[in-house]
Amino acid sequence: MKNRQSSRRSNQDAGATRRVALATLSGTVLEGYDFFVYGTTSALIFNSQFFPSLSPTAGTLAAFSTFAVGFAARPVGGLVFGHFGDRVGRKATLVVSLLMMGIATTLIGLVPNFAVIGVWAPILLVLLRFVQGIALGGEMAGATLLSMEHAPDGRKNLFAGFPQMGTPAGLVLANVVILTTGAVMPDSAFNAWGWRIPFLLSAVLVVVGLFVRLRVAESPSFEAAVSRDHVVARPLAEALKVGFPRLTVTLFAAVASGAVGYVFMVFSLSYGTSTVGFDRQFLVLCVTAAAAVWCCLIPFWTTVADRFGRRRMFLAGSVALLVAGCAFLPLMDSGSRAVTLVAFLLMGLVMPITHSVQGAIIADTFPVHVRYSGSSIVMQTGAIIGGGLAPMIALALQDATGSSLGVTFYVALISLVSLVAAVFMFRMPPVSLAEPAPLPDREPENQAV
């Protein structure tokens, strides 16, 4: 009888753990979809819809500027959601972030263009993009923690990797919808109004995400911290006590993944169409194929990390990212479709090696009771440095040099910085994850969230 009850309880626990993995994955997929629908459209459409008075290059640069606004907002989301995530729980904050992202994305699909409302069109676009950034700033760290803190023994990297799959999976979903929409209507119709359809579909997708996410349990680590009275009034200030050197090397170890990723996911679309001469559908298909490979390989690399450790894997992946990033645009410059497809698939093979475990690495930098705040600020600051500015910097360098050479140098430099930072990061002694002693008396200020 006891064995049967134990087996039933074990099956129930395994089912609950799988639900958490599915919930965190589905949520980050939907938020990734929303974010990348904007990124792809900004590279292909927004210059003519919202900045028609500018030259093609200036209009694309302005469109990429609105794309970067989302990254500027992400630390704000990290601060706000990190604070509440450490104070009231991971689950509630993730529900709010999903709602914010879905509503903002749907409204972007309804914003009139410049021809209809003039300067208010780009202003509204920027405001809604800012809301998107706040939502995503609270999502990734929280989803990683919720999944990782439910992980069975010995599978922490695997479960922390499920939310990381949301980035490439969301990109695949976004591009499939964009490709399908573009295939069923003339280019003129897609450029005029068809681009809005992928944004409006977010309203349907967010309902699915909420249904899954509302069924999961709160993080057991957070519940344990609450039960032992380890909730602190200012979690970010407490998280920063791990020290500036560790925060710095952890931050810069992760920036190459974002920079190289957004060069190949976003900048390549405008560069490939305007400079190399490829058609839009071919490039979107290449990005989609690369993202699918990237997504499928994340469980493999996180399993390797759980079994053999992540230090050597991360360092080797950083070297591979440096090499692949330097080769990417020169391969595109060949003008060959076959060679260009190989270049994209190479990025899909290399990206997941470091990206799959960097969420767990960042989370392990901080004690449990302040982990949401600490992880959020590191992830989102890294996203600005590595991701948000990458398309703008790449376009400016390409325009200044008249070739891809400046962009390739930029990719090489930031990849080298990340590699050196990772070497120093892994040489540091492990941070103590001890939680504070229970507070003897709760101060009145501690009652406020």
UniProtKB/TrEMBL annotation:
Gene3D superfamilies documented for this protein: MFS general substrate transporter like domains
Superkingdom of origin: Bacteria
Major facilitator superfamily (MFS) profile domain location: 20-433
Membrane topology: Multi-pass membrane protein
Locations listed in the record: Cell membrane
Keyword annotations of the record: Cell membrane, Membrane, Transmembrane, Transmembrane helix, Transport
Residues that span the membrane, as ranges: 58-81, 93-111, 117-137, 158-181, 193-212, 249-270, 282-301, 313-332, 338-357, 377-397, 409-426
InterPro entries with a match to the protein in the record: MFS, MFS_dom, MFS_trans_sf, Sugar_transporter_CS
PANTHER family in the record: SHIKIMATE TRANSPORTER (PTHR43045:SF1)
Protein name: MFS transporter
Lineage, highest ranks first: Bacteria, Bacillati, Actinomycetota, Actinomycetes, Kitasatosporales
